[in-house]
Amino acid sequence: MPILNTKGKALTAALLLALPVSAYAADQREVEQTMERASVLTAEASQPVLLGASVSSAAEANTTVKSSSLVDSLQGGYDAAATNLKVPWSMQFAGDTVYITQRGGGIVELKNGKQTVQEVRTKKPLRVVGEAGLTGFVLDPNFAKNKYAYIYHAYEEKGQGFNRIVKVKLMHGVWREQKELVSGIPGGRIHEGGRLAFGPDGMLYSTSGDANRREHSQDLSSLGGKVLRMTKNGNVPKDNPIKNSYVYAYGLRNSQGLAWTSSGTLYASDHGPSGAPIPGGNGVDTTGLDEINIITPGGNYGWPVIQGTETAPGMISPYYVTGAAAIAPSGIAATSDNKILVATLRGESLKEFDPITKTMTDVLTGEGRIRDVAVHNGRIYVLTNNTSGGTPGPNDDRLLILK
User: Fold this and answer.
1) Which position among 41, 206, 212, 389 has the lowest Cβ density within 10 Å, counted as fewest Cβ atoms?
2) Domains and CATH numbers, the chain
3) pTM of the predicted model as reported, rounded to 2 decimal places
4) Mean of the pLDDT values across residues 19-37?
């Protein structure tokens, strides 16, 4: 597999943040134990576990034996499909057309090589502070006919920051709000979460951050620090693990990535501690300990009670955790061979995570911060994020298509 490095900043394997490679049998036992813990939590909630919602890495291995590697097919380099983007956050595809949200407002349409910034009109004004703004975005599965999409955006109410999930419709080049699905998701300046995705079950999933108030993550009455699950109309599905609640999984800090492999396994990235002062307490957090989790219905992923490889009764430790140096994982995407591509901000690279060996390797380096990644029509698309917290180049930020 070639490591793409257009600026000559080759990284050695010694710099990678992967934990030591585990034996396959150990991997399988750990996943099975994770599933058992999640089953107990789901049973306690008196709700059925979704079929196909979680499987072991052994199942992934069976689906990858005959698959060719998308990353290994790369020859090196990329095409810059879009330039001069302003803090891009999420991308979606409608045929050959690409739509990209910008955190400060507007959705960029890339069609036939032309970039157009389209207005987003919401009933509550967009709040742009720190990490808050227009972030998550996903097209309706029937977008070609109904022109519906869903956005996650920050707003303010009585001087306090929140986030909401809104159904919008593209009408004459303008995205107009049609319906508010969920509001009151905790917000602030940091830890906003915001990734939206449709699952193989047809339900709409969303990540939410703890808004730098860690107590949200373990509080089941709060929508912060969670993976949320809802219908396209914003209703709570009857088979959600917690009755009458959008909460699908909890105990997360600032998850910004969701992806399903072909077997139906749901993976989520999560930002670990940042070395910042602890809200309401003394001292500072440790740093690093970024996570890749296998999400199961009703699962409690431990933040802030456990971190890294720590364990506690009723809590699920990360499937993969980095070391003390942060990579800050954001968007993730599954490949046809059931690997997970991971966009990293602090890590300034696109990485590939292998769920079988639990190793993470570099695919693209030297382009600065990476916010999002997608696989479309067999090609890998990457959004840089140097206009937010990085050192912008002359054409940043950009949409890159790897060769």
Assistant:
1) 389
2) 4-402 (2.120.10.30)
3) 0.86
4) 37
